[in-house]
């Protein structure tokens, strides 16, 4: 018996070590980026790879965060766009999801089917007309051109509906008996219950918006409006082959998010996996 | 009770959208929405300050910053703001869309090369300048020379602000070590031979930036500086032996390993100046626009001097320079302040652009003193520059290419690049490349002239 | 009746948005399919083109390459990410300490900005002296691939990178799926004498079908739209070996300003995704239980 347990432990330890090794390999691009960002250009491709630079060279970071580039501004823009998009989409998605799941109104299933159909429309189909219309109404080169389409999320509505379906209908009836209106039933009964789904949607919308590239690329013009991904590509365009600088900029763009994810890893993992469960 | 709740929801959504629009305006007040509002007020009260927006591709610290500061200090009633765009495909797209946008469009913009300029002119984005030039009292012939400005249907749509001189830059130490003299009158055959001699110890003998500068195009320009892409019948000149020779020579550079391979140079986004200064290549094809890197020994520390030679010719004894007049300044045809824009441009072309010399840009102004230009080019880096050779290259009386025709110009460039690329990467033979490049180009011209 | 009104009011904000930002653009885009429009010339550049745009597709030499590359990219990336994710999920779920930590590490590439990741990888892939090729030379491969500089390898290089980012996603979903499989199924099987491999194929894989289906659908839809990696790393090159639909559309629309033709191409992409989704839907009736 103890031998069996010992064997099980041994196997577990071996696989854990193997997995840890694999994890290091998976992470190696990030590790390489981090170490390269502290090197000088002449050392960057030294082999064997110097994972820990001989001396820490902070100059790359001084350049990236210096006056010439506006990484603070990029962060601020990204945060602003993300916050508004997340709040907006949580609100509209949970409202619509609640209605699609729990209220009986004419044409509900038909409208919902249409909603579902739009989920497979590739963003490229919408890009051209959106650009033309936004340009016409003066939305191009404003943050609203990114925020507005992000708020009205079909996937978000779908996720919220799926979640609300799992909450028993009796709650709605009970609320009605107590004389509560639909708004109160939604706000005071269903929303508190929907926390897991809301967190899930929050995480998804956050990662999508934070990392979004194609829409900002097309809609934003002034560098002062750029989001992080755009600011980063702009930086690379200007500094091309100065790889140490480019790596310092990549670290600056990636690490805060990685820290957030590592810190809230449970939320992130549950957020993503909830979308797949049911 | 329930009704109140609904009101709250609607008010909430309204409030959210108000906050959203307020915020998206608020944080960028210094640029977009802020100036939008100001523009409106200037329209109403003409006594107020006019704001001009200029888009150009040169980083602010390499000249434009000084230009703008000089102007603004002396012209309180017309304030100028410089916006830098990266002069690549997506940067030029940003400029195009900015030009047609309703708000916050540039008043003045600088295009680099005929391809981008033609596209803007054909789309009607460039204002006709003749009347404005007259009003501003700007003498085109005296400052730039009538021959150096290409007119479309007799009208001027741009004025060139820079005379760029193409040249070959050497690592002088490597050149001396190879026992070779600095070339003065040479052909591309000589160039390829020299590249072989300068290749050693993992350092390439040559670097030419693909796909921007390719030998088929260069040799064609050298052979036929005027309207190089078109033959006498108005079809493409791509059947020319200059194209064939150019392809062959460039392929030879790759095959003999005297130059980093075509795809690698593109995928790693290699630049001539960094190849030379970081010791990856001993000889590069460049031009005066690289002077700002040449003298920047801080960012590119090096132990050798840079020496200069004129670009190789199609045949010995010729004096064609493949660069020429550039920095094509135009006024947005939708600008509300065309006259102010023109007075800025005329100032810029007569004196303003001297602030661009240290950044490597020779003014088109005929009066510009070349000794002074060289002095500003070199700055404090004379220990790292073979100044005599630079003076020599700049003093030659060159013939510059001139592209008057523009039928399918951008597409022709693309065709030439694509077919050359396939040949360079062994995806087709030279015969196939020559056949396709001519056939496709003729087709493109015919389709466009229909 | 009251419920009708309440229902409409609840969906109204979202519906309005969907109408203005999805349905209207969609109709506009369909209209553009039949128009020729040089965008730089403004609305005066808009002319009726009939089926010109559709005819043009048949002569478009990039389109063929783009379609093939899209198909290869999806057909390799999706199974690669799914199989790797599944195997890792099974191992991490049962045979490992530090479960959460490992899961988070494998998950990081997925939440990282694809833009930053592409930039980092394009330096790693540097053919002449990048760390990947230095390593390959070190272990005795004297002539390592040219990666992004090679028409044969560029698409493979991109597939590896994208699969690397998706593994975190498939892993997390599969681990969640594994939690849902009742333990007694395995116990019963092992009493019947089924070994681990049989258990895996007879219990785990079938029980994970809904998860697999969800992953497949979402990944296929997103791999068909691959854009950022291409735009940053290769711009469709070398020799169009990484030309894909989304990038082709982007070039037509925002480099050449052929708005009508770009819209036509985007509808072709739409149709392809639609057909693939439909086929999958049909083949997996189980999915319908989820609605």
Distance linking N and C termini of chain C: 25 Å
Give the overall form of chain C.
Answer: globular
Number of strands of chain C: 2
N-end to C-end Cα span of chain A: 40 Å
CATH architectural designation of chain A = Orthogonal Bundle
CATH topology grouping of the domain at 66-257 in chain C:
MetI-like fold
What kind of oligomer do you see? heterotrimer
What is the tally of beta strands of chain A? 0
Quick check: average pLDDT of chain A? Answer: 88
Describe this structure in words.
The complex is a heterotrimer of chains A (278), B (450) and C (291). Chain A has 278 residues and is mainly α. In chain A, 74% of the residues lie in helices and 0% in strands. By secondary structure, chain B is of the alpha+beta class. Chain B contains 19 helices and 9 strands. Chain B has helices at residues 2-26, 32-44, 64-74, 89-100, 114-122, 130-136, 140-143, 172-177, 188-198, 215-223, 241-255, 262-267, 272-277, 291-294, 338-350, 370-378, 387-395, 409-424, 430-449, and strands at residues 50-56, 78-84, 108-111, 159-164, 166-171, 283-287, 306-310, 324-331, 362-363. In chain B, strands 2-1-3-8-4-9 form a 6-stranded mixed β-sheet. A 3-stranded antiparallel β-sheet of chain B has the order 6-5-7. In chain B, helix 16 runs antiparallel to helix 17 (387-395). Chain B is globular, with a radius of gyration of 25 Å. In chain C, strand 1 (35-37) and strand 2 (46-48) form a beta hairpin. Chain C has helices at residues 2-33, 52-59, 61-94, 99-111, 114-124, 131-138, 154-179, 183-191, 196-207, 209-224, 228-233, 245-254, 259-283, and strands at 35-37, 46-48. Chain C has 291 residues and is an all-alpha fold. At the B-C interface, helix 1, helix 4 and helix 12 of B face loops of C.
């Amino acid at each position: 018996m103890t031998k069996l347990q010992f064997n099980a432990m041994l196997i577990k330890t071996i696989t854990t070590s193997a997995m840890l090794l694999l994890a290091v390999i998976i992470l190696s691009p990030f590790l390489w980026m981090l170490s390269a960002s502290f090197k000088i250009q002449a050392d960057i491709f030294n082999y064997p790879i110097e994972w820990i630079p001989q001396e820490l060279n902070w100059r790359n970071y001084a350049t990236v965060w210096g006056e010439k580039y506006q990484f603070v501004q990029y962060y601020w823009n990204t945060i602003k766009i993300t916050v508004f998009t997340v709040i907006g989409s949580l609100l509209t998605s949970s409202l619509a999801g609640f209605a699609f799941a729990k209220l009986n109104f004419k044409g509900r299933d038909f409208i919902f089917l249409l909603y579902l159909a739009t989920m497979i429309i590739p963003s490229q189909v919408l890009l051209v007309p959106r650009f033309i219309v936004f340009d016409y109404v003066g939305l191009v080169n404003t943050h609203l051109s990114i925020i507005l389409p992000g708020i009205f999320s079909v996937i978000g509505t779908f996720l919220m509906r799926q979640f609300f379906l799992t909450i028993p209908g009796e709650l709605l009836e009970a609320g009605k008996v107590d004389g509560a209106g639909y708004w109160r039933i939604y706000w005071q009964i269903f929303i508190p219950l929907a926390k897991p789904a809301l967190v899930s949607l929050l995480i998804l919308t956050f990662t999508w918006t934070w990392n979004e590239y194609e829409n900002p690329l097309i809609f934003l013009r002034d560098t002062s409006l750029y989001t992080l991904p755009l600011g980063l590509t702009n930086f690379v365009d200007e500094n091309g082959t100065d790889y140490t600088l480019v790596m310092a900029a990549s670290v600056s763009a990636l690490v805060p998010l990685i820290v957030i994810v590592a810190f809230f890893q449970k939320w992130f993992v549950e957020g993503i996996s909830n979308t797949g469960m049911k | 009770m329930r009704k109140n709740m609904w009101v709250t929801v609607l008010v909430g959504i309204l409030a959210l959208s108000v906050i959203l629009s307020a915020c998206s305006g608020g944080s960028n007040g210094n640029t977009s929405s802020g100036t939008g509002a100001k523009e409106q007020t200037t329209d109403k009260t003409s006594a107020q300050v006019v704001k001009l927006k200029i888009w150009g591709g040169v980083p602010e610290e390499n000249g434009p910053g000084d230009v703008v500061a000089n102007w603004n200090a002396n012209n309180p009633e017309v304030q100028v703001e410089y916006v830098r765009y990266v002069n690549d495909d997506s940067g030029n797209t940003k400029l195009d869309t900015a030009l047609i946008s309703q708000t916050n469009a540039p008043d003045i913009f600088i295009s680099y090369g005929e391809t981008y300029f033609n596209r803007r002119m054909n789309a009607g984005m460039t204002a006709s300048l003749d009347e404005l030039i007259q009003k501003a009292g700007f003498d085109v012939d005296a400052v730039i020379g009538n021959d150096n400005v290409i007119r479309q249907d007799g009208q001027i749509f741009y004025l060139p602000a820079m005379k760029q001189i193409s040249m070959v830059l050497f690592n002088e130490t490597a050149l001396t070590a190879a026992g070779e003299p600095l070339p003065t009158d040479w052909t591309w055959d000589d160039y390829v031979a020299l590249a072989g001699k300068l290749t050693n110890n993992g350092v390439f003998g040559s670097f030419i930036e693909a796909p921007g500068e390719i030998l088929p195009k260069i040799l064609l320009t050298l052979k036929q500086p005027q309207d190089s892409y078109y033959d006498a019948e108005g079809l493409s000149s791509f059947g020319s032996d200059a194209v064939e020779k150019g392809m062959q020579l460039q392929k030879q550079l790759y095959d003999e390993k005297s130059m980093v391979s075509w795809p690698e140079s593109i995928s790693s986004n290699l630049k001539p100046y960094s190849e030379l200064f970081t010791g990856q290549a001993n000889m590069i094809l460049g031009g005066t626009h690289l002077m700002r890197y040449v003298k920047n020994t801080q960012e590119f520390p090096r132990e050798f001097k840079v020496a200069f030679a004129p670009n190789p010719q199609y045949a010995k004894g010729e004096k064609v320079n493949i660069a020429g007049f550039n920095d094509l300044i135009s006024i947005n045809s939708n600008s509300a302040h065309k006259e102010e824009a023109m007075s800025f441009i005329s100032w810029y072309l007569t004196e303003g652009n001297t602030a661009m010399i240290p950044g490597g840009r020779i003014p088109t102004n005929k009066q510009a003193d070349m000794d002074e230009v060289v002095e500003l080019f070199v700055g404090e880096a004379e220990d790292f520059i073979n100044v005599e050779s630079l003076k020599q290259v700049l003093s030659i009386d060159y013939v510059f290419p001139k592209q008057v025709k523009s039928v399918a110009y951008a597409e022709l460039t693309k065709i030439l690049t694509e077919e050359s690329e396939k040949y360079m990467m062994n995806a087709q033979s030279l015969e196939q490349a020559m056949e396709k490049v001519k056939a496709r180009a003729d087709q493109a011209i015919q389709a466009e002239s229909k | 009746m009251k419920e009708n009104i309440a229902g409409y009011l609840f969906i109204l904000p979202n519906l309005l948005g969907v109408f203005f930002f999805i349905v209207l653009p969609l109709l506009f885009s369909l209209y553009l399919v039949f128009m020729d429009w040089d965008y730089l010339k403004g609305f005066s550049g808009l002319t009726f083109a009939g089926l010109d745009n559709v005819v043009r597709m048949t002569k478009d030499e990039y389109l063929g390459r783009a379609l093939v590359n899209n198909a290869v990219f999806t057909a390799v990336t999706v199974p690669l990410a799914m199989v790797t994710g599944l195997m890792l999920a099974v191992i991490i779920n049962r045979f490992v300490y530090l479960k959460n930590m490992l899961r988070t590490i494998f998950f990081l590439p997925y939440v990282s900005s694809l833009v930053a990741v592409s930039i980092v990888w394009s330096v790693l892939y540097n053919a002449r002296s990048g760390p990947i090729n230095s390593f390959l030379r070190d272990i005795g491969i004297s002539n390592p691939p040219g990666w992004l500089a090679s028409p044969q390898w560029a698409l493979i290089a991109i597939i590896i990178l994208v699969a690397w980012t998706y593994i975190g996603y498939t892993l997390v979903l599969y681990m969640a799926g594994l939690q849902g499989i009742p333990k007694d199924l395995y116990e019963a099987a092992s009493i019947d004498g089924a070994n681990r491999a049989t258990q895996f194929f007879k219990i785990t894989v079938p029980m994970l079908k809904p998860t697999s289906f969800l992953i497949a659908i979402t990944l296929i839809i997103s791999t068909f739209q691959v854009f950022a990696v291409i735009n940053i790393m290769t711009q469709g090159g070398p020799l169009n070996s990484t030309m894909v639909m989304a990038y082709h559309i982007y070039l037509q629309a925002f480099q050449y300003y052929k708005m009508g033709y770009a819209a036509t191409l985007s509808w072709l992409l739409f149709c392809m995704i639609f057909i693939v989704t439909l086929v999958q839907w049909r083949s997996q009736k189980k999915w319908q239980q989820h609605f």
